[in-house]
Q: What sequence folds into this?
């Protein structure tokens, strides 16, 4: 299991079935301009840091809010890509 770096909150249109509006997710990594999160069922999702959206409908995008940042890495990545 990957180390949890902190927590983020997703705000926006639900990205079914795992990323839901106002959901809190554990952050476990980053890849380029994407954030890797795990939901409460241990399902991993890789989504854009800037304007996350459902791949089938990019017209409505959401945003992330930092809830907990244990090492400062989440803020650093957000500052780079937002």
A:
């Amino acid at each position: 299991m990957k180390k949890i770096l902190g927590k983020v909150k997703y705000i926006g249109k639900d990205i079914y079935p795992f990323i839901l509006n106002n959901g809190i997710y554990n952050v476990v990594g980053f890849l380029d301009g994407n954030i890797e999160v795990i939901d409460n069922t241990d399902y991993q999702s890789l989504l854009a840091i800037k304007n996350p959206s459902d791949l089938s409908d990019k017209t409505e995008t959401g945003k992330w809010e930092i809830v907990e940042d244990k090492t400062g890495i989440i803020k650093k990545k957000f500052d780079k890509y937002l």
